[in-house]
Write a structure and sequence with these properties.
single chain, 148 residues, mainly alpha
């Protein structure tokens, strides 16, 4: 086996492990997850997982997890029957401050403002369409003060 073949195999194995981590985050976003636990699940060090995940997906595992949580929070806030605090805990965040900060970074407005405006903005849209048009932007790209 040549070194190129071994390198390719190793890279493909790492990609498969990274996919497993991403799939676990997608499934278990509301559970207490940290990079150390995610790394342990695929027999990697936390540092190696973070570096490889960022290379493969353009953001850290923590940023990806928070994006998933914010996406789910947006759906719960659109329903309008839960408070911002209840939504924060329902999506797995332990800190209302961290949740509100990340939500505002991704969506461009605080969760309380989003909750108030979202119901009218998506009125009459099927939920699958509302989810698509209100999807949060990653990597702090949301312009402050504007909804999607």
């Amino acid at each position: 086996m040549t070194s190129d073949t071994a390198t390719t195999r190793h890279h493909l194995r790492d990609l498969a492990l990274l996919r497993r981590v991403r799939d676990r985050i997608d499934r278990e976003y509301a559970q207490p997850l940290d990079v150390t636990a995610l790394a342990r699940g695929v027999n990697m060090s936390a540092g190696h997982l973070s570096r490889q995940f960022r290379l493969a997906y353009g953001e850290s595992p923590y940023a990806y997890l928070m994006t998933r949580r914010v996406e789910r929070a947006m759906a719960l806030l659109r329903r309008g029957d839960l408070s911002v605090t209840e939504v924060c805990f329902a999506v797995g965040c332990a800190s209302l401050g961290t949740f509100s900060t990340r939500f505002t970074e991704l969506v461009g407005m605080p969760p309380s403002t989003y909750r108030r405006l979202a119901a009218s903005a998506t009125a009459g849209l099927p939920s699958c369409v509302a989810k698509q048009v209100t999807r949060p932007v990653r990597n702090r790209e949301a312009p402050v003060g504007r909804a999607h």
